[in-house]
Design goal:
single chain, 209 residues, alpha+beta, Glutaredoxin, 5-stranded mixed beta sheet, 3-stranded antiparallel beta sheet, 8 strands, globular, disordered N terminus
Length: 209
């Protein structure tokens, strides 16, 4: 189990600030409250990079589960940006298109997500699985010719729940955990999954705010 303490408090404060829309005024003591306190604790601006890759054909189309994940992904990125703004963390989304030929070689790479260079499933202590996806088959050369009407596409498994399309809540949770590691780097060295808590944001990626 990962330990958070001060970091968790900062993240919760940021989320509550966004969700409730509440603001607090500093008392006579002059102590900063709300978002001001979080920004002061966060220090210089940091970048949280989210990478998502999926199958895209020549006309820009993708399968149903990747399409749903895309909708949820953008929702999560917007929520993360609002939640992490008080912590002075910018959120970037890098969408990577995989061709049908690339997916034919390894379909498990489609609909895969990394946050701060670490796989979504690692942040959530989840497992990676696979399930049949008819939508991908029509885009992949050789699938229909070989009389295969489905391919086994990537899933994320948490407990007994299997996710084919990734909901915003999972991306948001993983993003908050990654942000927690960024706020207090000294804690990250002992509890960051994979041993890498940050990844340089590539030029041209979408910045959510």
């Amino acid at each position: 189990m990962r330990k958070y303490t001060k970091t968790a408090a900062l993240i919760i404060l940021a989320v509550l600030t966004v969700v409730t829309g509440c603001t607090q005024e500093a008392g006579e003591s002059g102590v900063k409250t709300g978002g001001e306190a979080a920004v002061a604790a966060a220090g210089p601006a940091k970048a949280l990079c989210v990478k998502w890759q999926r199958l895209v054909d020549q006309s820009g189309q993708t399968c149903g589960r990747c399409g749903l994940t895309g909708t949820e992904m953008r929702k999560a990125i917007d929520l993360l940006a609002k939640a992490l703004e008080p912590l002075n963390i910018d959120v970037f989304l890098n969408e990577v298109s995989l061709s049908p030929a690339e997916c034919a070689e390894d379909i498990s790479q489609s609909n895969r997500i990394w946050i701060a260079g670490v796989g979504l499933e690692e942040w959530l202590d989840a497992r990676v699985g696979a399930s049949q996806c008819e939508g991908c088959c029509e885009y992949m050369k050789g699938c229909v010719e070989a009389e295969r009407r489905t391919v086994d596409c990537r899933t994320v498994i948490i407990g007994e729940r299997v996710y084919e399309a990734i909901p915003a809540e999972l991306v948001l949770k993983a993003g908050l955990l990654a942000a927690a590691e960024m706020v207090l780097p000294e804690e990250a060295s002992s509890c960051c999954p994979g041993g890498a808590c940050s990844e340089p944001c590539k030029p041209g990626v979408f910045k959510s705010r």
